[in-house]
């Protein structure tokens, strides 16, 4: 049914870069047989899933939305994919994204943008717009995203779906094409909070292949989502990320959701995190710095594309590398590589990268102080509903500003979840409610999210 749905609507939505009907059907049949034999491997066995194209899938193309990796077929599975397969989830295919996960609209994909199923002239957010659009358009009941600065939560917000970024280290990064290694985290894109918790349980947990993986059991996320209990819980509204600067309709739905939590027995407190206002600036130095280093491996020798420079008879390795990186990377990727190498260069390191790291520490301290006063923190997920394709494409600053509410969680490594809060009055488009919990207490955000459904 999902393959039929993809065939019917993906021409318009363009959520997928690659669909694997044979592989998905074979896995689905196997899950059916196991269920018939009473040997189901998990609660989600047989439920199909779409995977963001930044995650390595053995035998299936993995491009990270870039020409640089066109035609690359990974010889191995990411750990989270191994876990999906082991739990019996058929993989429908790979979803569209901004190139190397840089962006907030999927418009930086080398393969053309995805469209928001609510209004095809609008973006489904980014970078993982393909995964959220697939879920919103009923092309897949579940999807995998990655969130470095909001790429699971912001697309969820503007497509009326659920997205969860686990605690840093909660889901193995082995087999993810790294954007910024200290910020990257994979997680679920779903239509309900309970679905997200079930998927989190499948992909989460310790992995020896990732040195930053947390060596502890997955927090009790499914239990918390089932109980959906907020009685006596202190909900902290972050003063700096709500109100001013947020679309009135988004803010209104946010406040109504808050009232719902009060009706269910929670207590609302206001918290102040003054350094969050510097979050965006710090992020857009730390991310390009790490990305410029991670992307150095695309050297025309090891993976994917290789381009020979025009009019050179026997080009040097350096000339081939330069020609390949010129042809293979899009403008946004080049912009960030230049920014990152500049911020890391001697003489500028202390002024830029060093300063940004200090801000990062202050943000973590603001979180720690806020979590003394509140059990979870909340805000709207994104400042606006889905914007029109093309609207922010030529204005990187406007694009970056989308991430103002989601970035602090990545800088501090804390988990965050976005779920729909309703449709904004101005445009009838979905708005998102974000819940942030202390590190390793992911279950708290699932409990609060489920109480709102
Ligand atoms: N919009 C952010 C960026 O462009 C988010 C990226 C992400 O989470 N992958 O960096």
Structural description of this entry:
This protein is of the alpha/beta class. The protein has one domain: Alpha-Beta Complex (Amidase signature (AS) enzymes). 38% of the residues lie in helices and 13% in strands. The chain contains 15 helices and eleven strands. It has an eleven-stranded mixed β-sheet with strand order 1-3-2-4-6-5-10-11-9-7-8. Helix 6 (193-203) runs antiparallel to helix 7 (221-227) and helix 9 (279-294) packs across helix 12. It starts with a helix and ends with a helix. The model has no long low-confidence stretch (mean pLDDT 97). It binds glutamine (GLN). It comes from Luteipulveratus halotolerans. GO terms for molecular function: ATP binding; glutaminyl-tRNA synthase (glutamine-hydrolyzing) activity; transferase activity. One of its GO terms (cellular component) is glutamyl-tRNA(Gln) amidotransferase complex. Belongs to the amidase family. GatA subfamily. Pfam families: Amidase.
List keywords for this structure.
453 residues; alpha/beta; Amidase signature (AS) enzymes; 11-stranded mixed β-sheet; 13% strand; globular; binds glutamine; EC 6.3.5.7; nucleotide-binding; GatA; ATP binding
């Amino acid at each position: 049914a999902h393959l039929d749905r993809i065939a019917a609507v993906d021409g318009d939505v363009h959520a997928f870069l690659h669909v694997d009907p044979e592989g998905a059907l074979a896995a689905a049949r196997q899950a059916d047989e196991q269920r018939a034999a009473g040997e189901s491997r998990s609660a989600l066995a047989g439920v199909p899933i779409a995977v963001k194209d930044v995650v390595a899938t053995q035998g299936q193309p993995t491009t990270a939305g870039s020409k640089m990796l066109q035609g690359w077929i990974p010889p191995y599975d990411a750990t989270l994919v191994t876990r999906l397969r082991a739990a019996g989830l058929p993989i429908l295919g790979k979803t569209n994204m901004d190139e190397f996960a840089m962006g907030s609209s999927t418009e930086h994909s080398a393969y053309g943008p995805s469209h928001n199923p609510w209004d095809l002239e609008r973006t489904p957010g980014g970078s993982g717009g393909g995964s959220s659009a697939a879920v919103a358009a009923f092309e897949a009941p579940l999807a995998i995203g990655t969130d470095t600065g909001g790429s699971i939560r912001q697309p969820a917000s503007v497509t009326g779906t659920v997205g969860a970024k686990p605690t840093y280290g909660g889901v193995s990064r082995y087999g993810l094409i790294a954007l910024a290694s200290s910020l990257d985290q994979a997680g679920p894109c779903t239509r309900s909070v309970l679905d997200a918790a079930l998927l989190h349980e499948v992909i989460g947990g310790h992995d020896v292949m990732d040195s930053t993986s947390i060596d502890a059991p997955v927090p009790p996320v499914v239990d918390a989502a089932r109980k959906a209990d907020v009685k006596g819980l202190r909900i902290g509204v972050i003063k700096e990320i709500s109100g001013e600067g947020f679309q009135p309709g988004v803010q209104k739905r946010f406040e109504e959701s808050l009232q719902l939590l009060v009706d269910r027995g929670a207590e609302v407190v206001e918290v102040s995190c003054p350094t969050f206002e510097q979050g965006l600036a710090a992020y857009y130095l730390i991310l390009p710095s790490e990305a410029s280093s991670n992307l150095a491996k695309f050297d025309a020798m090891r993976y994917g594309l290789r381009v020979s420079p025009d009019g050179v008879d026997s080009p040097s390795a350096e000339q081939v590398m330069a020609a390949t990186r010129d042809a293979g990377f899009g403008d946004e990727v080049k912009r960030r590589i230049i920014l990152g190498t500049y911020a890391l260069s001697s003489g500028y390191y202390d002024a830029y990268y060093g300063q940004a790291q200090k801000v990062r520490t202050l943000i973590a301290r603001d979180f720690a102080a806020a979590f003394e006063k509140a059990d979870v923190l909340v805000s709207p997920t994104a400042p606006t509903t889905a914007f029109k394709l093309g609207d922010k494409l030529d204005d990187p600053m406007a694009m970056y500003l989308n991430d103002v509410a989601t970035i602090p969680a990545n800088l501090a490594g804390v988990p965050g979840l976005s779920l729909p809060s309703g449709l904004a009055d101005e445009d009838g488009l979905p708005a998102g409610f974000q819940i942030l919990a202390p590190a390793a207490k992911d279950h708290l955000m699932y409990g609060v999210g489920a109480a709102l459904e």
